[in-house]
Amino acid sequence: MWAAAARLWLPPRPGRGSPAGRPRSAGPPVPHRLAAVSEPTRVKGARTLSGPGDGPAVPSSPAAQGLLPDEPLTELAARHGLTPSSARPGPVIYLKQLWQRRHFVLAFATARNIAMYSEARLGQVWQILTPLLNAAVYFLIFGVILDTRRGVPNFIAFLVTGIFIFNFTQRSFIIASRVINDTRELIRALHFPRACLPLGYIVIELQQMLISMVVLIVIVLATGEPITWYWLMVLPAIALQTLFNVGVGFILARIGAGVEDVSQLIPFIVRTWMYASGVMFFIPALSTLYLHAKLSYLMQINPAAVYIALVRNSLLTSLRHTVAGYRPYNRQLCAAGLHQQAHGVLHPALLNSCHLVVGNSSLWLYGVGWAIAAIVIGYLFFWQAEVTYGRG
Question: pLDDT digit string (tens) for 340-384?
Fold first, then answer.
């Protein structure tokens, strides 16, 4: 302890640059002591520190200290034009965001479409084989066993057309009902308009249906149908059907995101719908509907039947000629013809008045109406729950 005290009182030794052997000063030693603090250090306003001899501390502003101002964060964000990243945009802005991502939707659909059959040996050939095998099964059951081809010219082309067109709607609805739940990790990881998902998967089904249309054209030509300018009407018919599929797909996507059991029910509902849409038979030629005009009319104007009929009327000249030969529907004449037929007497002229056919112009009006109603209602319905997807 005494050695340490002595070091405090001794003057510092000369540095290396000092001349060797220089005598030290003979004066009295100068003490080196620590200065005492007159007042303890005080904390001013819990923000600034005052040192010895300082005057009263003046608190600086929060901005000078790098702190947020004393105002609610919501008002601060609004003053600087900031909005929450999870906020739902307006319907018009949301539509613009979808349009800006149209290239992503198309690229996503194309990539998924190519990868879908990448592990199968036949690959993309299954996109053609699947509807063809379905058509073969339905032809055996409905065309041969049940003989629903009565009154339908060129039944093979008639049947394949109905199956291919309805398959587009069926697959779109089934996949849309579970798309949000199947892509929940993607939704939580990235910020993008959620409507891209059902839209992208329906584009996948559209691409597959367009491939099937090539096979359909070959079948139609092989069965003796001529090429006419009516074939051009297939394009707007498919465009209207696509809009309808997208609109209903939006509705099913939102419902399926909240209730996962919906995706299990949709296949059964759509299959029942298929049997009521004239996929395997011609609704006006169905004898059980001869005396039920209202039911026949309702079956013909349901959306699936409308789009199937529009494509059939565009491709099948034989069907257009057959329908043109029908007389206007007359329930009294039809009932008289059926009564005489029950007694073994056939009157084709009377029975020719039993076919209630919705005209082609009316079918186009219904097709446009169904498409517009579905896309507007479906878009707004899906948009309203934009911020809730992926939270389950």
Answer: 888 877 777 788 889 899 999 999 999 999 999 999 999 999 999
CB 301 within 8 Å of CB 373: no
Do 195 and 383 touch, CB atoms closer than 8 A?
A: yes
| pLDDT over 60 (residue 52) | no
- Alpha-carbon 54 to chain mean position: 68
Q: Report yes or no on 39 lying in a domain.
A: no
- Domain that includes residue 181, residue range: 91-282+294-323+362-388
Q: Using CA atoms, how far apart are residues 241 and 308, in angstroms rounded to an integer?
A: 9
Average pLDDT over every residue of 285-302: 92
| pTM summary value | 0.76
Split into its structural domains, the chain has a count of: 1
* Dihedral (Cα; 155, 160, 165, 171), 10-degree rounding: 140
Nearest to 114 by CA among 126, 102, 103, 104: 126
Alpha-carbon span 138 to 155, nearest angstrom:
11
Q: How many CB atoms lie within 10 A of CB 300?
A: 22
Supply 28's token pair: 């009295």
CB 350 within 8 A of CB 196: no
